[in-house]
Amino acid sequence: MKDNRRFVQVGLGARSEMYSTTLIEHPSNGQALVGLCDTKSRRMKQRAAWASQHGVEVKTYPAEDFDRMIAECKPDCVIVTTQDCFTTCNICRAMELGCDRNQPRSP
To answer: Dihedral sign, CA of 31, 34, 37, 43?
Structure first.
């Protein structure tokens, strides 16, 4: 069964790499990383450039544009790898914006 879930990731520090690597280098059944969000533009540019080297184009958004990222990327899941003090805020906001989904959106 094809799993077409779309993922975005917020927080691109050290703990984020394993999640990005899995979705970019080892995608499973149509899953895709479609958006990146961070407070540091340099981190986003580096991660997006790395993804591009693997043939995946990922949109980037500064932290203050989290809501816009959700609206434009329409993710099913948000991977939150921010500092612990920001995790709850990002998870709650993602759920408020409709990202609490167990099934992928229809294509």
So the answer is: positive
At 21, the amino acid letter reads T
Does residue 23 form part of some domain? yes
- Alpha carbons 32 and 20: distance in angstroms, whole number: 10
Give the tens place of pLDDT for each residue, 44-100. Answer: 999 999 999 999 999 999 999 999 999 999 998 899 998 777 777 877 788 888 876
Token pair of 35 as six digits: 């958006």
Instruction: Report the number of distinct structural domains present in the chain.
Output: 1
Tell me the residue range of the domain where 44 lies.
Answer: 6-96
pTM, rounded to two decimals = 0.84
